[in-house]
């Protein structure tokens, strides 16, 4: 759930800008035109657009979690991005980043996630439904893995993800902070490219839909800033996608991403993903 916002520092009699009002999915008051306006900056989007024309965030359904339920906080990051920038050059890296960002935003929009902010070469995303976080993360990993395999050295991208479940604190302007955010960031740091790591709290939340057989116990790991160790689990996302395809797609084993792209969960490239 969302905790009370951190008090805004006031100078003189300055009033709060309307664009800084908390989005409804974090407990703010719902606006009449919210479905077509950005929850952070308030910009109205054209009918055919899925992204804010002002700040670029994805326009998703309002994410107002039921009272007392926690949010799933997800950090993503491109592995070794600094070295890749040096090797490939700024122009090529900019094109790669744009493609990567498009993949992430398309999937978070599809799975009702909300982009809190870019973190350089990654994202901070939140979900009201923890299972949506799993589905989004697995499809991002699949798309990135397949694109990297097909492009070879021209697209050497490997993404890692860290997920935790808990309360967040809303900052004026729409950013979030707190222990849940810190934990998700620390969990991300324990992973390598191609990994989706979750805390025990998160895995327990989704275990009915994503059984323990899809998770690999990484052991109790020391987390910077915590006095105790935290048990971390790695999602076997390729196996999970194949299992979902078998259940949900009794016909052709394909899952549509967009009008021009089909994804086969049994693609031989993914067969080697552990």
Q: Would you identify the CATH architecture of the largest domain? A: 2-Layer Sandwich
Percent range for helical residues? 25-40%
CATH topological fold name of the largest domain: Alpha-Beta Plaits
- CATH class of the largest domain reads Alpha Beta
Determine Rg (CA atoms, Å).
Answer: 19 Å
Mean pLDDT level: 78
Distance between the termini: 33 Å
Percent of sequence in beta strands = 15-25%
The beta-strand count equals 12
Number of helices, where a helix is a run of at least 4 consecutive DSSP H or I residues: 7
Structural class: alpha+beta
Which parts are unreliable, with pLDDT below 50 for 5 consecutive residues or more? 4-23, 60-68, 250-254
Shape: globular
Strand and helix order: EEHHEEHEEEHEHEEHEEH
Name the strands of the widest sheet in spatial order: 3-4-2-5-8-10-9
CATH superfamily of the largest domain: Nucleotide cyclase, GGDEF domain
* Tally of distinct domains: 2
């Amino acid at each position: 759930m969302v905790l009370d916002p951190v008090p805004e520092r006031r100078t003189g009699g300055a009033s709060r800008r309307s664009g800084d009002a908390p989005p409804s999915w974090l407990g703010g008051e719902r606006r009449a035109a919210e479905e077509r306006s950005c929850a952070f900056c308030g910009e109205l989007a054209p009918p055919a657009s899925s992204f804010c024309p002002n700040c670029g965030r994805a326009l998703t359904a309002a994410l107002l979690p039921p009272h007392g339920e926690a949010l799933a906080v997800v950090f993503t990051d491109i592995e070794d991005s600094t070295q890749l920038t040096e090797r490939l050059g700024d122009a090529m890296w900019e094109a790669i980043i744009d493609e990567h960002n498009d993949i992430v935003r398309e999937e978070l929009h599809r799975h009702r996630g909300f982009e809190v902010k870019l973190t350089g070469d990654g994202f901070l995303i939140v979900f009201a439904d923890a299972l949506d976080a799993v589905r989004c993360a697995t499809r991002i990993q699949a798309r990135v893995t397949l694109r990297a395999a097909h492009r070879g050295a021209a697209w050497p991208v490997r993404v890692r993800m860290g997920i935790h479940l808990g309360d967040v604190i809303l900052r004026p302007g729409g950013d979030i902070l707190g222990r849940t955010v810190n934990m998700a960031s620390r969990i991300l740091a324990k992973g390598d490219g191609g990994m989706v790591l979750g805390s025990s709290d998160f895995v327990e939340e989704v275990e009915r839909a994503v059984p323990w057989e899809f998770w690999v116990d990484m052991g109790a790991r020391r987390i910077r800033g915590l006095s105790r160790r935290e048990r971390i689990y790695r999602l076997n996302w390729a196996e999970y996608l194949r299992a979902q395809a078998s259940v949900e797609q009794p016909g052709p084993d394909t899952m549509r991403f967009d009008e021009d792209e089909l994804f086969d969960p049994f693609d031989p490239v993914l067969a080697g993903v552990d």
